[in-house]
Amino acid sequence: MKTILFTIISIIFSLPSFSQNSDWQKSDRNGVYDEAMNLLSKYTHINQEQKQSVALCFLEEITKKYSKADYNAKIDAELKRIQSAALNVCSKNVGVELAIPKIEETHVPVKSEVNNQYLVGSWRTGLESFTFAESGMCLVENGSKSCSGAWTLIGKTVSINSKGSKWGKLDSCNKDRQFEIVTYTENEMIVLMGKEKVRLTREK
After folding, report:
1. What stretch of H or E contains 108?
2. Is residue 173 a contact partner of residue 162, using CB atoms and an 8 Å limit?
3. How remote is the C-alpha of 16 from its chain's centroid?
4. What element of type H or E holds 9?
5. CA dist., res. 67 & res. 71, Å (int)
6. Which of helix, strand or coil describes residue 150?
7. pLDDT value of position 121
8. How wide is the angle at C-alpha 122 spanned by C-alphas 166 and 133, nearest 5°?
9. Quick check: helix, strand or coil at residue 195?
């Protein structure tokens, strides 16, 4: 009887696990985790520990439901829907709200005083930071990824001609970045990135 029991246990432990697809290697899993952290970077009202918990859950959701080949074969529209669904599930599991709080625009409206010298320095929003150098180069960093390119300020519009490695399937570092300054103070500004208003804070 004991021999039969030990045989059954051995068989069970030798069976492959279906909780995750085995083709996801460590580097691939790190990439999915980084994708989640990048997606969560705009939610500045969530602390780092909460973001990490949601990102870990996101990692498990993706690697459990999809093989690496299936996930990488998805088009951008499919990825966006998959990632959004995973974030919604995981944010509820962790107990955080992903709705972005409305930004109070109590800042001074942009005037002609905004010039290149005002932008020089490092600015951060979530995990993403922009370091504008007097030389006209800008370093863009997001988690462990970074790239650089030339920056210009024309009127209220900041343009960054970024060149470098791609940030997974979420954003391309070799794609030009552009945003418009809406309001500003000495150490903070509200900018319009696409249709979304983002708060950038100057780093000391």
Report:
1. strand 108-109
2. yes
3. 32
4. helix 2-14
5. 6
6. strand
7. 92
8. 85
9. coil
Question: Residue 123 is encoded by which pair of tokens?
Answer: 């600015």
- C-alpha 40/C-alpha 54 separation (Å) is 9
**What does pTM read for this prediction?**
0.48
User: Could you give the CA distance from residue 138 to residue 16 in angstroms, rounded to a whole number?
Assistant: 48
- What token pair was written down for 117? 């010298």
CA distances, 172 to each of 44, 60, 161 (Å): 22, 24, 12
Beta carbons of 147 and 129 less than 8 angstroms apart: no
C-alpha 174/C-alpha 163 separation (Å) is 4
Identity of the residue numbered 87: L
Rounded CA separation 21/8 (Å): 24
pLDDT, position 53: 93
- The amino acid present at 48, given as its one-letter code, is Q
Q: Over the stretch 84-140, which tens digit does the pLDDT of each residue have?
A: 999 999 999 989 888 766 555 544 454 446 788 888 999 998 878 899 999 989 888
The DSSP symbol for 167 reads B
The residue whose two tokens read 């995990």 is 127
Give pLDDT < 70 ranges for the chain: 1-22, 100-113, 162-175, 204
Q: Please check whether residue 121 is in contact with residue 131, taking contact to mean a CB–CB distance below 8 angstroms.
A: yes
